[in-house]
Amino acid sequence: MASSDPTKKPRPGPWPPAPESKPMPPSSWAKRTGFRPKFSGETNATDSGQIAVQPKPRVPDSGPDLEAGRALPAAAAANGGDKVPPPPPPPVKRRESDGGGTKSYGAAAPSANGQVTGAEPPVPPPGRRAVRNEEVVDVLPQTVDDDGFVSRHANMKYELRDKPGLVPIGLYGFQHYISMLGSLVLVPLIIVPAMGGNNEDTSNVVSTVLFVSGMTTLLHTSFGSRLPLIQGPSFVYLAPALAIINSPEFVGLNGNNFKHIMKELQGAIIISSVFQAILGYSGLMTLLLRLINPVVVAPTIAAVGLSFYSYGFPRVGTCLEIGVVQILLVIIFSLYLRKISIFGHRVFLIYTVPLGLAITWAAAFLLTEAGAFSYKGCDVNVPASNIISDHCKKHISMMKHCRVDTSQALKSSPWFRFPYPLQWGTPVFHWKMALVMCVVSLISSVDSVGSYHASSLLVASRPPTPGVLSRGIGLEGLSSVLAGLWGTGTGSTTLTENVHTIAVTKMGSRRAVELGACVLIVLSLIGKVGGFIASVPEVMVAALLCFMWAMLTALGLSNLRYSEAGSSRNIIIVGLSLFFSLSIPAYFQQYGISPNSNLSVPSYFQPYIVASHGPFRTNYGGLNYVMNTLLSLHMVIAFLIAVVLDNTVPGSQQERGVYVWSEPEAAKREPAVAKDYELPFRVGRVFRWAKWVGL
Fold this sequence. Notes:
Blueprint: H1 28-33, H2 74-78, E1 92-95, E2 102-105, E3 109-110, E4 116-118, H3 166-179, H4 181-185, H5 188-194, H6 199-223, E5 231-233, H7 238-245, H8 257-281, H9 284-288, H10 294-306, H11 312-316, H12 320-336, H13 347-350, H14 352-369, H15 390-402, H16 409-412, H17 431-459, H18 466-486, E6 492-494, H19 498-505, H20 510-524, H21 527-534, H22 538-557, H23 568-590, H24 621-630, H25 634-648, H26 653-656, H27 664-669, H28 671-677, H29 683-686
Antiparallel strand pairs: 1-2, 3-4, 5-6
GO molecular function: transmembrane transporter activity
Family: Belongs to the nucleobase:cation symporter-2 (NCS2) (TC 2.A.40) family.
Membrane topology: Multi-pass membrane protein
């Protein structure tokens, strides 16, 4: 019998439900994809796109809470087994990065793809124990305000527009660049020796890479996407650069092979960079965005890392005593010691590459000085063709690759050197090499799309608009033009490792990245810095590259978290893309080569000489070169298969994990978003008419 007291609310029964019930909290896949239910309750999408019938609400049980492992409180038991409702969460405080005031916002459930799923905070189901937040993860959580804008991330130390002061900015900027040292300097350590360059050439190219990287990073943070992303020589350009270096017309060259091949690379990079700039600034990139989704980005970037398996450990095997130790150290630092914090910094995780390199290099130096790699009567400086003793022939390879005193790069490098444009000579332009690089610049743009989206979810208030993204791609094209003019050997693009570095260092301040870029320019003027990096033994470079390429593969596959990774559709598309990205290039690379073939290049460069023996053999030599080279590149095959299947096989937006970008009109109305992405010095007002490259 109901009570007559009007102040007491009647206890609702399990059926019928309340007439104004609010939507249930979205499930995990709905959070990731930004799905919003159209009716009260949660929608359960099946593979066929139908809506599953919702289960009836469970009748409360007054028994013990078996899930939590304890009995219900007395108040809950007296209420029919219902748990006492928790107090409402306090409003989220958001500090304006450039203002100084605070604003209170309501809580909402964000999606991992940058979209808000609802204005109500998710209520934990009854009887389930709250998850303890005992460890800091690298993929940072987010909170969203009631207007649909991502607010301050709880675990980020500094966000995009934060200006904490010169000392903190300098400290965090330094650690940010040191953690990405491998991505910045390892590429020239591969391509320069492949072009026939000596230690001095390697030192000069390293200094040039540091200079161009600092200059293009400043341009990108000011006039590009304005996200704190370091620009540099991406691994995306490494395989096509090696293919051009090993072109048949360069075999048997007389004179300075390095400068001749570098000028050919410069010409190809400049033309492809102009193509990328037109792609971005013309607005065509906004159209291509409809085809680029996580299921396309993931296998494409993963194929870049997997493509160098024939180079990695075979080079480590030239001195297992040093190379294996290097690999084990970076594994121990990045995995087993990653949670150890010193003065609030996870030094082993942040400085995995420089710590592993320093310890291994010191150990190799001690072994060299102790005579572990010295043999009586053998001189490492004598050419192998002039060695007569069988004893020396047996050990000469170990002496060359294990000793750390064989390089003269540090001694021969000057103290001061200013990198200048066209320092290797006037670029040489050939349409077939330029066409190959144009396709590669498109793959580089796909890589940057994933990096823009993932980094914006970490440091910015919302993802960029399609216009901001096109502006960033256009500026990357101009940056690669500068890289071609200065002669770095590769294009300049957003490094994929940026996302991992931001998540690990918790540093997303644009000012810190800009200060680090200025320091990078200063260091590039000191010739001894380039000489020191160029003197790193080849086996250590190969060991670090094994780790870097594995990281690149994993970072590419991590884009699948924005889609339904367990969907059979996505599993099949990614699986086909990865398998054929390895198998089809293997067919082209092995075509026409017999077991007894006398190759003119080392075995680890064999995949890059396909232009001379590929299956395309028409009467047009340039066409043969382009087709044989492009179809032997793993990332090109992965991209073609993934983009065709993902855009032709039916699938919902939630299943595909379509990237969510900010709407231009909504972004203009939100001051925080405008301050994140608008151009400085009121430059945006001059180009207000170009709406396809702005907010």
